[in-house]
Amino acid sequence: MGTQMSGTRERHQDRDLRKLSRSRRRDGRSAEISRLNRSKRSQDSDLTGWPVGLSNSQSLSVLSYLRHTFLDLSSARVAVGIFLLAFGVRLVAIFWFSLYQQPIAFNEMELIGRSLAENNTFANPYKIPTGPTAHGALIYPLLLSLIFRVWGYGVAARLALLVLSAAVSSLQYALLPAVASGCGLPRRFAVVAGLFGALVPLRLFTELDSWEACYLAAGWVVGVLILLQWWQHPSAKTSALCGVWWGLLFLLSPQMMVVFGLAMLARTWSMLRLRNFCCLRWPILTGTVAVIVVLPWIVHQSVQLGGLVLVRDNLPLELSVSNFPGASPFQFDNFWMEGGAQIGGTRHPHGSPAEAALVAEMGELKYERWRLQEVIGWVRQDPEEFLRRTTNRIRYFWFMPSDYPKWKDVIIFPMTALSFYGLYRLMRRAPAGGMILAVGYVGYPLVYYVTNLATRYRLPIEWAILFLASFALMERPFAIRFGRSWKRRAFLKRSVSVRAPANAPNPREAVLVDAIFTQASSEPRAQKDLPMFAAHLGELSALLVLQFQTEGRRDRVSLFG
Questions:
Q1: With 50 as the cut, is the pLDDT of residue 175 above it?
Q2: What is the DSSP-derived secondary structure letter of residue 279?
């Protein structure tokens, strides 16, 4: 009778899973599937309500129980929880350190924002009015102008900027579990990374007061999520969305053009290797949409300045103030320390009225070309020094020493080293996500290898460093880490369901895995059960082979697929 009731109960659960599959839910680990999994565990649980399969010592561990309960929460609730924690920590810091009472520092971006607020002109980023400019990209000065129009230039505007930066910085950590799910991975390690970034802000003041850096970081995380969806399920809709979002990122920071271009090249090459020529239209469509988004601003700036400008034109100026004879790899040393003060104080238009007057007289584009010739002459004069300085910048970009407090280096340096190993492991386990993060590691820091270094320049990529370091620490064989068969069983269930396309879960795989483990663990196993065991194992193998061959899942057998 007990066996019959158990069989009836399993058939009912299989029927519920099939109904759920027909609804084509977007996430195979949605709240409904979590409810079904909890009901299965509860059937075999003891009277205390703790999950079975745990040893006696683990059953008495409150931490283990809370961990399982937390992992059953929906992705949206986890993201909201991480966001609220991060936002709360940063709000406390704003008021604890009285950051809102500090006056707004009117650097180049703030001066452009003030010009937009007062005169509706994208101009005057230096000491004196110099006319139209392309020193900054569009979006951040435009955002500053809106805040200045509403709150002015006093304490209210400063507080609005800090609170907005805190919210945007918190968003990047809240989205890390979604990135793990988009890569087809368990979100456990990403939740740990998000909580660490939320509660231990290693770059707190940089996050709150670093121009567009925090906005670029959050926008990059969203861009990675969109790229993952487009990479795995290309269509006209996802291509248009991807192109629009990345086009906006170009208008926030033009070095993202390099990251986007490398991602498109990687995807195109993977399609060519698979001889999937019909899908080449999706990278072309995505790139076209991105160009359409950024093209009006390029045309506007080119007309205003009298020459072609790709969003910003200040790269020659930054090269010149970064590579003079005797220059340091760091911005602070070159601008404010003795020896470099001449360059920072007298050769940069923001700090030197004479240089700003020269910009107004020559025109910004001609001035930039002149500074480019200047730095080319310096490099030709001593190429070995330039090469040595560039090598140091590469080293310091990834392992940048902290001025204060020094203990942060004990965390940041090992975390950065672990992230490279995590990237290697991610490219093997989730090639699509690994490749998208790899192009960021390659493309984003290129410009900072030849210009001045500062902490805020590294901030936009630190979410990826934290994400990959957490993956490197927690991505180990489950049998070694937990040493319990129920953990291996849960991992196998996730591996055959999570890596499937999110809109078409196949519950039959989970049913087969459940049957195989049940039959394999029965002691002694009856001889009549062997044919059924072999049949279930063969059907599961066939499903997995079919899964490898299905469109959109080639990333499990090809590095760039």
A1: yes
A2: G
